[in-house]
Amino acid sequence: MNIIKHLALIYFFAAFSCFASTKPNIVIILTDDQGYADISFNPDHPKEVSTPHMDELAREGVFFSQAYTSGHVCSPTRAGLMLGRYQQRVGIYTAGDGGRGFDPKLPIFPTFLPNEYTSTAIGKWHLGLDEDFPELKWHALNRGFSECYKFMGRGGHDYFKLQGVKSNDYAPVYRNKKRLTDNEYKGYMTTRLTEEAVDFIDRKKADPFFLYLAYNAVHAPAQAPKEDIERYKKKFPQISEKRATLMAMLYHLDLGVGAVVKKLKDENLWQNTLLFFLTDNGGSKAMEANNGSLRGFKGSLYEGGIRTPWIMSWPEKFKGGRIIKTPVSSIDILPTVIDAIDTKVPEGTKFDGKSILPIVTGQSDSHHTNMFWNSGPPKGEWAVRQGNWKVHGLGEKYNLFNLVADPSETKDLTAENPEKASELFGLHKKWLKTMVQSAGTKKSSQPSADEAKDKKNPREIKREQKREERRKMRKKQKSKTPAKTPNILFVVCDDLNSHVTPSGYRWIQTPALDDLAADSMTFSRAYCQYPVCGPSRASFLSGLYPETTGVLNNTSDIRKSRPDSVSMPEHFKSNGYWTASVGKIFHSTRHQQGEVAWHEQIMFQNDELPQVTKARQTYEAKNGSVDLRANRKNWKAHLQKLSTQTRGQTPPGYGPTGLRDEQHKDGKNVRQIINWIDQKKYGEKPFFIACGIQKPHVPFLAPQKYFDQYPPKELKLPLSPANDWRDIPKLAMVKRFQAFGFEMGRENDSLRREYTQAYHACISYIDAQLGLLFKSLREHNLWDNTIVIFTSDHGYHLGEHFMWGKVTLFEECARVPLIIRVPGLTRKGTKTNALVELVDFHPTLLELCGLKAKGSLQGKSLVPLLRDPDAPGKKYAYTVVSRGTKLGRSIRTNDWRYAEWGESKMAELYNLKDDPQEYTNLAVKEAFKTQLGKMKQLLSEAQKTAGSLNQTTLSDD
């Protein structure tokens, strides 16, 4: 062959190779339940989040800051992505709908690609479950993919084994149509999926390919290699066990993204690869994901449920290193790919999505006029976005937000813009009429011809008949078995502020409460009615405000001041409940209501501290028994000087005790309840058990191991301005800080750290005890029929405003942690910002148990909120506290707090949105005169409500 012919052939093959590579490779990396702030490219990410590979991808590509998924849970988003259309058009609204699958004859993503493309689906499918039917109707290989390595089941999958989230829920992994055995599946799921993706690229790099890599990370269950979890726990001791596990899962997910990108670069494929990175919905509350300032989580149509960290890259076609604010949707991916590869689609094909290429190439800055979401039955949540406007609704009720001014969706603008709100409501209604009803409703408003044929499929008819038979059997069985009356576990702590992780406090370890919150509803704005034990307990146990109970100090007894009142335990006992309590429920032994309220009632004390035993024996050898009247005063004074641990309330004692968990009164309290449960003391009756947790009331005593969790130097202490009290009425102050050893306006850092360490040690101690109690309920199969309420009688200052202890109206004292679990009603891991009060407990429990109140109650049932965390709460929360003959009154709305101390010149007004620490009193500023007037009016209204059942005043006490 001569040189000219040889060069010609080289040129021909080079030209052909160049032509063959013009079509881009397509890569979609879809993560599962990753929080919007759980990527360190987000400047608002928590400090424990580190995703260097995702960050590098974002820096090299284009990041869409207002990108959305078409669904609020896993399966709907996947259906919309594969169709390029709203998934509601095929009846997919919920995860269950996706599990049932949609018409297998409908074309999805890979069928639109030219024949030269090889495609694979790796990871989570969730678009129809085969249930071992031989035809594998929903299988990826029957939907246009060339090969696959995936699991088909709904929800999560074990990360180490071939099983689903429950041990008996076998969830096979398929390599193509072959089910893998235990011998063929080894390793950590995230790593295995990454290895399969890298191997696919290596095998198919000569031809254009489509890689759909759908990680199941960081979806539940919370599982990761133990050494990685321990590494995060050690580095970030303030985060919970579950959060540390999530970070370990995210670590492996980030490594996977890095490995795929590296492989594309190593094989010189990166420049001509169109890559999309996104997650399938908002972060999961149950997994402790972080969505930053966005409202809501997975399962919600607020921004936190549907906004996704979206990255797009194609170096050969458009420049990276940019952030684009134009709203885009996951249904845009398929139309974008079709535009990128310049291929034709079958005639009559319609997409709801639109190509994003004009935006990233600078040809256009506009995209969707309107974007729609709908969660389907039973919730019926919906949303519409139009420009900066977003309307969010439940049925016929809706709120309007401006997402540019208010991305956290906190301010409803419906009243100010009723026409815009109504317009978007109408647009959604019109859009919904064009959709197919949820597959879960067993009917379709506009069935396609293929769907009609599918209904006639004999196998489908037979399966539906079997389902119907099972439904009838369950219904028949249910009619035979009357609904069980729910049990009640009421846990109330003493002096516990919001220093628990479910309340958003990150520098403490409360795993038992974290687990309870993951299974319950957490109230982030719950308020006591009086920040002192006796008045607060008299109020929430009776369902009456303190001004009606007449209990405005720790000595008053509601049985004398309000003899017609009926406490919760008394009411439940008279209605057939077995009632029992341990610890402090009513304020003291002389306030206890005995057999009127309880079948069983016990109050324990701590065992004697080892050092006290030694000191007592020495003292008694010289002076006789410490119980002798002549010795009592001297012995008490001797204990005060012995050590910090042996002091009482003034100055407060604190420190490790040398006792075991079960030797402290709260350990005894919990173990007594467990003993009642073990013995089934309640018999055949439903029970109302009240668990009075004494800690973290002073003295701050706990076993050594709980102190070890909080090295003083590592504690985070908020500092108050030295002149904090310059604009605050003196009556707002209490001088309890002096008993703790502090001076007003001066920080004593070392002493403050010692007290805070002890307070936190007490909290972790009681959390460990409650973990035993919750475990016992589960082991005795009582968990699914027991209402659980966890709260505190009031909050507590730990140096904020230079205050220590209680008896103020500041947020630290008035706000309390509140978690409520109602089996069959509350959804897992939900959270509400609605304002609620402790006085609401009584009417709530009565409604939940189908009981009627004996007499009037002033609280408001929380059941509507328990059904829907986005339902409106109270207009305000009302708290009072006495100062001699004066009564300080405080009103707390969503954004403001106002307090009066008997005279108009002694008033407080705080903008809690701008000043959550309440450092700046705006009551005397002319610019806030209008707001001051509004708050005065609300306070007057609250005062009338609080005294509506009588005219009891402070002087009556």
Uncertain spans: 1-21, 442-457, 951-957
Oligomer: single chain
What is the beta-strand fraction? 15-25%
- Main structural class: alpha/beta
Mean pLDDT: 90
**Count of runs of 4 or more consecutive helical residues:** 28
> Major beta sheet, specifics?
11 strands, mixed
CA-based gyration radius: 32 Å
Number of strands: 32
Record keyword descriptors for this entry:
single chain, 957 residues, alpha/beta, eleven-stranded mixed beta sheet, nine-stranded mixed beta sheet, 32% helix, globular
Can you walk through the features of this model?
This protein has 957 residues and is an alpha/beta fold. The protein contains 28 helices and 32 strands. Strand 31 and strand 32 form a beta hairpin. Helix 19 packs across helix 20 and helix 21 packs parallel to helix 24. The longest helix has 31 residues. It is globular and about 100 Å long. The N terminus and C terminus are likely disordered.
